[in-house]
Amino acid sequence: DNNHNHSHENSPHSPHDSHSPLEAQEGYLRAAMTWQERHPDSSPTQFTTECVFGYDFDRTYFEETEATEMGWACGEVGAIQQVLHAAMLGNLFGCVIYGALADKVGRRLVFLLLALKVAVLGSTYVFLKEMWVVLMVRFLVSMGLPVLYQIVIISALEQVRDEHRGMVTSLSSICFSVGQCLLALVTWLTGHWVKLGLVTSVPALLALVYIKVIEESPRWLVARGRLEEAAKVLLRVAKMNRLAPTHRDVLARLHKACGHPLDSPPRTQRSGRESNACLGILGLLTLYPRLCYRTALVTVCWTVNLILYFSSTMKYPYVFENPFLGWFCTSAMEIPANLLVLVLLRKIGRRPLHAGVMSLCAAALLCAAVVLAFGYGERHRGVAALVLVAKFCTSMTFLVIYLQAAELHPTPVRTCATGFASLIALTCNIFSPSILTMTHPWQSYLLMGCLGCAGVLSAALLPETKDRPLPQTLEEAENLTRRPKVSKDEGRRGSLEVDLVSKSSLSDPASSVLKATDVETNI
Q: What region holds the Major facilitator superfamily (MFS) profile domain (predicted)?
């Protein structure tokens, strides 16, 4: 059994051992008789046996992998799929648990918790040998990894002006793509899965350094009624922006925005129907139909994007024989895609960009299906170019859907709602390997093209969020399209944000320290 990994030198039956023709005949005869005993009612002309003379691995590109060290070959090859399934299940459960936890206890604490979990358990994982322990720790390591990325984007979006949200999302995604490119280089330099696991896990301990750097989201603090803490965060933001408002001025503006006197005790921001609603998915379903409808559309878009992104990533590396080069190229192309999104978001908005680029992706996949249906192979240059176009497009739309999901949901359930969409998408993505391995390649491309068409329809039905302030409450999110857009001259107001004004307006701190609604930080 030739695995594209590393040679298993300690195998009890190396393929380089000398075997006489008689030994070979006896070995295959025993295997055939064993198969016949297990399947007495069948007598096929060909069948697959266990590794009669052992196995070896190809170590052209890797010194050692987890599969080669554990001997996951022949009858044990299913262990690889078990580890992958454990990781995917961890992602699913993590989206439910940590998404809701981030809305409950705050983004900063959950971010630090997840980072430390990755550092400790990720470093421990590479030294485990027992299969059940490997699966359990792999599950725990993968729990919350998608939420970790979501928290970074959501926290940034909640602390910048409305017109800067697209830029922040694009820059975050570009950093992610740069990290993917560096992963190919680090993997090539290490060549050993233990070294790679340590190099990619231990640096997460740097999150401890962020404790004094990362601020809790002021929006989340206000939504939870913690105005004193929100005021302290905004004062530090003002200091970074070289402003000097007083604590009382900031607190007065926050109380005014919340609609209660300065001396009254702070309370969690809930109004009307919100007071009786669970701030989660059940509350959205029962009391906020328009918000529920948009959440369903976001979930469909997220699912389509994830499946197409994953499938195009797994398809295109087949064009390259060198796995490092293939991974680097598919990752590097995301950088210009993210830069293009940064430009187009300001010009045409979220909805037209998402629907238009997804249309191009669906067209590319359908064209690839037609080319393959005419008898060309997947390594044909035309098919490779079309898959590259699809990967480029999904890199753009994935960035846009992250932004739209954050802008359509209010602060109390923002992380929970995006986690719910990610949960459904990850669940559906389990079937992506089946799409990639369909009997005829053109069938997989046709199916992906049809999924792209569903994504186009869902994206077209989402409301435009460009130039709209982030909703702070469920009521505001429910009536999002009824709220007027804010022009640049009006200061891009949000519902419960604080906008630090310029130095020239500080001559009267009591009257113009804060504008009542937008927060801005230096990034």
A: 44-467
Listing DSSP states for 385-445 in one string gives: HHHHHHHHHHHHHHHHHHHHHHHHS-GGGHHHHHHHHHHHHHHHHTTHHHHHT-SSHHHHH
End-to-end, the C-alpha distance of the chain in Å comes to 52
- Specify the 3-state DSSP secondary structure of 518: coil
Cβ-proximal residues to 255 (8 Å cutoff; 6+ apart), any chain:
227, 261, 262, 264, 266
Q: What mean pLDDT is reported for the chain?
A: 76
pLDDT at 429 over 70: yes
Beta-carbon contacts of 350 under 8 Å, excluding residues fewer than 6 positions away, are 400, 403, 404, 407, 462, 464, 465, 466
In whole angstroms, give the CA distance from residue 360 to residue 382.
Answer: 16
What tokens does 175 get? 């950093």
Residue 152 pLDDT grade (very low, low, confident, very high; cuts 50, 70, 90): confident
Nearest partner of 56 among 12, 87, 120, judged by Cα: 12
Find all residues with CB under 8 Å of 88, minimum gap 6, and list them: 142, 426, 429, 430
68-72, 199-203, 397-401, range with the lowest pLDDT? 68-72
pLDDT (tens digit, 9 = 90+) per residue, 480-516? 776 656 555 444 444 334 343 333 333 333 223 333 3
pLDDT band at 352 (very low <50, low <70, confident <90, very high): very high
Query: Which amino acid appears at position 62 of this protein?
Result: F
Q: For 274, which DSSP code? A: G
CA distances from 267 to 155, 181, 220 (A): 22, 46, 13
State the burial class of residue 76 (Cβ atoms within 10 Å of its Cβ: 0-12, 13-18, 19+).
middle
Q: Can you give 116-183 as a three-state secondary structure string?
A: HHHHHHHHHHCCCCCHHHHHHHHHHHHCCHHHHHHHHHHHHHCCCCHHHHHHHHHHHHHHHHHHHHHH
Cβ of 503: how many Cβ atoms within 10 Å?
11
The tokens for 131 are 């299969």
* Whole-number pLDDT of residue 64: 86
* Count of positions (residues) in the chain: 523
> So what's the pLDDT on residue 319?
59
Q: Cβ contacts of residue 206 below 8 Å, gap of 6+? A: none
Q: Are 9 and 17 in contact (CB under 8 A)?
A: no
Structure tokens at 410: 């209010």
Question: Based on the number of CB atoms within 10 Å of its own CB, is 45 exposed (0-12), middle (13-18) or buried (19 or more)?
Answer: exposed
Q: What is the pLDDT of residues 289-327, one digit of tens each?
A: 888 888 899 999 999 999 999 888 877 656 567 788 878
Q: Which of 370, 382, 398 is nearest to 313 (CA)?
A: 398
Which 3 state secondary structure label does DSSP give 205?
helix
Tokens of 159: 């602390």
